[in-house]
Amino acid sequence: MKEITSALANPTIKKLLSYATLEEKVNEEYKKYACLPSRKLYSIEVNGETISCIGVEFLNSKRAVIKHIAVLPRERGKGIGSSMIRFLCKNYDIHSIFAETDIEAVNFYSKFGFQITSLGEEYHGVERFLCKFKVK
Predict the structure, then answer these.
(1) What gap in Å lies between CA 123 and CA 128, rounded to an integer?
(2) Would you say 53 and 41 are in contact if contact means Cβ atoms under 8 Å apart?
(3) Are the CB atoms for 84 and 54 separated by under 8 Å?
(4) What is the mean pLDDT of the chain?
(5) Over 80: is that where the pLDDT of 122 sits?
(6) Model pLDDT, residue 9
(7) Where does residue 15 fall: left (phi above 0), alpha (psi -120 to 50 degrees), or beta otherwise?
(8) In this predicted model, what pLDDT tens digit does every residue of 71-89 receive, in sequence order?
(9) Do residues 131 and 116 lie in contact, with contact meaning Cβ atoms separated by under 8 Å?
(10) DSSP characters over 15-76
(11) pTM of the predicted model over 0.90
(12) How far apart are the first and last CA of the chain?
């Protein structure tokens, strides 16, 4: 995994982030990774191509929130998303990780071992979920 620290996002990172947030928010979210010390953005490259990214916000030394996680569609289902979460658990002394997501990602988080709680309809017709994971 490689930490992304550039002030300018490359097009592949922007495309990946667009899978995890609204396209019109990509630049704003990327800027937060570049400017806020509590946020980190990592990517995985295979044969020189960026295939995934994970963005995290550290709430304190023991708690983190996954803000964005994305894998190129053709690379999904290969354990890449899980490996990024394991990287965070191994490389940071965090005790719990949280994520808020929609129904499309609930299965991914559940398979990893996150506990899922419905937050109800946060937007009209869109149910949101809080996912919590206790690091062992």
Answers:
(1) 8
(2) yes
(3) yes
(4) 92
(5) no
(6) 83
(7) alpha
(8) 999 999 999 999 999 999 9
(9) yes
(10) HHHHHHS-GGGHHHHHHHHHH-TTEEEEEEEETTEEEEEEEEEESSSSEEEEEEEEE-GGGT
(11) yes
(12) 22
Judge whether 93 and 135 are in contact, CB under 8 Å. no
> Cβ–Cβ contacts within 10 Å for residue 64, how many?
24
Determine contact, residues 116/129, Cβ cutoff 8 Å: yes
pLDDT at 126: 83
CA torsion sign, 40 to 41 to 42 to 47? negative
Report all structural domains of the chain as residue ranges with CATH numbers, in order of start.
2-134 (3.40.630.30)
Residue type at position 61: S
Q: For 19-39, what is each residue's pLDDT tens digit?
A: 998 889 999 999 999 999 999
